[in-house]
Write a structure and sequence with these properties.
DUF4299 family protein; alpha+beta; 22% strand; Cell Division Protein Zipa, Chain: A; 3 domains
Length: 301
């Protein structure tokens, strides 16, 4: 589910000037480095920390502003989208075209028809996808939130009340709001290393875990743990097998890791190595078991 409001005009505005005009003064954008720029076709997300889930997308392309909402948008996101739409309409003097209308409308109709009642009706659209795809099949779903991709799977589903779409929606919104806004000054966000797997010839994303510093671990293919000139490459999906109380899950797969001492880091290195050694021995045994035995020259085939 997505929903868009569009405003056709050649009058431009900067992200900063738009923020100044909004009712809520706590609104942020996901790319603060472009704050003074005019709203452009690349766009960005507007959000309210600890109240937004998906945020509100805004872009300007072909003389048209596009204000977008997506599935699992919080009520705060809906209110923010309506406020952005109204503010742009006032600033440009242009009418508004909601996605579900054939003709543009003015601010008065926007305020009357796109009220709390409308929010209550549309906010639940698409929630059944999460209940069915995760609750019934055990799959993971990833959605773009305010800062990052957010992964939702069986672990998160088990914490939610799926007896109704409304209870599931409110539980999921609350969980995302509580976990996605971690302290980005405290936790370092690592860059990916992209390498080619020699066995599969496929490119893999790697991230390196370091000691003596707080760190965010985004979803990757491999977690690298180094010890002097040696290192281990642990499949990302097996981090839970070595995670200690220094690891905090913020969604289905991604972790915040509080600073590890050298001793704690070394223990993780050894634990990861043991996992890989056990997996290697198991694979070798399976290969031996699957290898057909050579028959004696006199045995019938």
């Amino acid at each position: 589910m997505s929903f868009y409001f569009t405003i056709t005009t050649n009058k431009r505005i900067s992200y900063n000037d738009l923020l100044i005009e909004l009712i809520n003064k706590n609104v942020e954008i996901d790319q603060p480095e472009i704050l003074q720029d005019l709203v452009a076709d690349g766009g960005c997300k507007f959000f309210i920390p600890y109240r937004s889930t998906r945020g509100v997308t805004l872009r300007y392309e072909n003389q048209e502003y596009s204000i977008g909402l997506n599935v699992v948008a919080s009520e705060a996101d809906f209110e923010l989208a309506l406020n952005i739409t109204e503010t742009l309409s006032k600033y440009t003097g242009a009418l508004i075209l909601p996605e579900d209308r054939d003709e543009p409308i003015d601010i008065e109709i926007l305020t009357k028809d796109y009220s709390q009642k409308w929010i209550d009706e549309i906010k639940l659209l698409g929630i059944d996808i999460f209940i069915e795809k995760i609750g019934m099949t055990g799959n993971d779903l990833s959605i773009g939130c305010c800062y990052m991709m957010y992964s939702i799977g069986p672990k998160i589903h088990s914490q939610l009340d799926s007896s109704s779409k409304e209870s599931y929606y409110h539980g999921l919104v609350k969980l995302i709001c509580q976990t996605q806004f971690f302290d980005r000054e405290k936790y370092a966000i690592p860059s990916y290393l992209v390498v080619t797997n020699k066995k599969t010839d496929k490119k893999e994303k790697m991230i390196v875990l370091y000691p003596n510093g707080d760190q965010f671990l985004p979803v990757a293919d491999v977690l690298v743990i180094r010890k002097e000139d040696d290192w281990v490459e642990l499949p990302f999906g097996r981090i839970n097998e070595i995670a200690t109380n220094k690891f905090t899950l913020i969604d289905e797969q991604q972790y915040l890791v509080d600073a590890l001492s050298e001793a704690e880091y070394h223990s993780l290195f050894l634990a990861a190595r043991n996992i890989l050694t056990d997996a290697s021995v198991k694979n070798e045994n399976e290969e031996i078991a699957e290898t057909p035995k050579t028959k004696r020259w006199w045995q019938f085939w």
